[in-house]
Specification:
elongated, 2 domains, single chain, Methane Monooxygenase Hydroxylase, Chain G, domain 1, 22 helices
């Protein structure tokens, strides 16, 4: 029973450690996620700066997976190329070593400071101000990491002789490098965090439960295990998401194979080197040896593979090929992995909606041209665009429902606006499709609008096109400068609707137009006027979630 109690205590320590990491990562992502995304988006083709930024961002959020999510989003958005993304992924591996260093540095005084920090963070969580609560989450998360570490290294866990004897027996049984690497892979895949796995291994070495030479192989396995989550998450995602995950796995696998062979052959010299850098038998010195090896592994692997970025990209493109038909029915900038990074996900949703707005504009122009010209040459493209608009509307709506609970009040307001904009864009797409169907039906009946009607409808469509430009600028750039003009143009479309209908009835009375044209002419005018209404909603969504022109914000 005593052994079972010690194991439960040990698992509790691991649990608190992981919860602390999640708390800290979530708080950092919510407070600085958008800023880090912008930083990543500014990366040029300098590989060294890419590695540095990747390491810095990961050191802040304490999660290479979180950095990978941001990188995937930027690659999908076209902000970053795969060539630029690879050095960032390499740098992310270096950034994860910060956790190991912090774990190795812990002592009684340091732990007391962290406990106080955790308590302070919990108290800050009761404040109403969002920024203070986020800072409190950061403090409490950092403190919980060291609470978990202290629980693991306490007398009730690794400090207990029964536990030490049990683990010593286990490791004597699996004292074979490949088995130890496998242990590292499986354990990291289970806890879904290489930082957490490394922290546990360092704590075990410090407690005298795990010999240093065996710990090195487990650390190597942990670097492959951290890729498992990304590989599983990329299943069903688009091609670039899969390529980033594959490159991450390839990078870590090559480094692990190289270092496993190296340490296997030169085990004693490696241990002597680490011991000479951190001599002494105290727990901190012993733990720093593992942490140092973790740093050496990731930095060396990066230096080894950084010159082969082009080859890694080519390899990923060779293994994972583009499928155009498949991609037309998948979101271009968003996937489920982004739910772990809410602020980044929200930015990618906006990118998806901007693409949707472009399709709605293209369909409006093409369909209206087909209506006036009487040809159906763009019918397949219009139908395909409309299918993508409908798919994007439904898929993004479901994604936003999943994303909403993890957002702050500002994010929730943005999601509310996006729901309305999605509906407006979908309705614009429907009206555009109607224009094409009106043209096809008129052509089938041998009907065509008069020159006067074509001129009048052309003027109305020209006004709507100008509204598209203003709404697009407002939504994409949060530019409210021309919203008054947007309102004026919408009022003009209402007036033109009345004027055009009156002119049409006048032509009917004069015998210059057939009554057969009436339903088609009226439907076209009404459709364009309703497109204008939806465009006003899109433009004003940056001020009011409902898209209302009133100052209700």
């Amino acid at each position: 029973m005593e052994l079972i109690g010690c194991l439960i205590w040990l698992l509790a320590g691991v649990g608190v450690f992981i919860v602390g990491m999640n708390f800290m990562g979530d708080a950092l992502e919510k407070s600085a996620g958008s800023g880090m995304k912008k930083l990543l988006g500014k990366i040029c083709n300098n590989r060294i700066s890419g590695v540095g930024i990747g390491a810095g961002v990961t050191a802040i959020v304490q999660s290479s997976s979180a950095t990978s999510v941001m990188v995937i989003g930027l690659v999908n958005a076209g902000v970053m190329t795969l060539m630029q993304a690879v050095p960032v992924i390499m740098g992310a591996n270096i950034g994860t070593t910060v956790t190991g260093i912090l774990v190795a540095l812990k002592n009684d005084y340091f732990n007391m400071a962290m406990y106080l920090l955790a308590f302070t963070g919990v108290m800050m969580g009761f404040f109403k101000k969002e920024r203070i609560r986020l800072l409190g989450g950061l403090f409490s998360g950092l403190g919980l990491i060291f609470v978990g570490l202290e629980i693991m290294s306490s007398e009730q866990a690794f400090g207990n002789q029964l536990v030490k004897d049990m683990f010593t027996g286990v490791f004597e049984t699996v004292d074979f490098p490949l088995l130890l690497v496998l242990v590292g892979i499986v354990f990291t895949a289970l806890v879904q965090s290489s930082s957490a796995a490394t922290g546990v291994v360092i704590t075990m070495v410090g407690a005298g439960v795990l010999p240093l030479d065996l710990a090195l192989f487990i650390i190597l396995g942990a670097n492959i295990g951290t890729c498992v989550t990304a590989l599983l998450a990329s299943v069903g995602a688009n091609a670039n998401s899969k390529r980033v995950a594959l490159i991450h796995f390839t990078f870590n696998a090559v480094g692990t194979v190289f270092f496993t062979a190296l340490i296997w052959i030169f085990r004693e010299p490696a241990i002597q080197l680490l011991t000479s850098v951190f001599p002494g038998g105290d727990p901190m010195s012993v733990q720093m040896r593992v942490s140092l090896f973790h740093v050496i592994f990731n930095v060396s692997t990066t230096l080894l593979l950084l010159p082969f970025v082009k080859q890694l990209v080519a390899f990923s493109s060779l293994v994972i090929r583009d499928k155009r038909a498949e991609e037309s029915r998948t979101l271009r900038f968003v996937d489920e992995r982004m739910l772990a990074m809410p602020s980044v996900a929200l930015g990618q949703v906006k990118k998806e909606m901007e693409y949707m707005l472009g399709l709605a504009y293209e369909n409006t122009v093409l369909s209206f041209a087909a209506l006036l010209d009487g040809d159906g040459k763009n019918g397949e493209l219009i139908a395909e665009n409309e299918a993508i608009i409908d798919f994007t509307n439904g898929t993004l709506t479901r994604f936003l429902i999943k994303l909403s609970p993890s957002l702050d009040s500002s994010g929730e307001a943005t999601v509310g606006a996006y729901f309305h904009v999605l509906n407006d864009l979908e309705r614009i797409g429907d009206h555009a499709e109607n224009f094409y169907e009106i043209g096809a039906e008129m052509k089938g009946k041998g009907l065509a609008f008069s020159e006067a009607a074509v001129s009048e409808l052309g003027e109305l469509c020209k006004t709507v096109k100008k509204m598209f430009d203003i709404s697009k600028d407002a939504f994409e750039n949060l530019n409210r400068e021309h919203l008054d003009e947007l309102t004026a143009l919408e009022d003009r479309t209402d007036e033109m609707k009345r004027t055009l209908n009156a002119a049409h009835f006048a032509r009917l009375a004069e015998g210059n137009c057939s009554v057969d044209h009436s339903p088609y002419f009226s439907s076209t005018v009404v459709g364009l006027e309703r497109v204008a209404d939806h465009l006003v909603n899109v433009g004003y969504s940056i001020l009011n979630p409902t898209g209302s022109q009133k100052n209700e914000y």
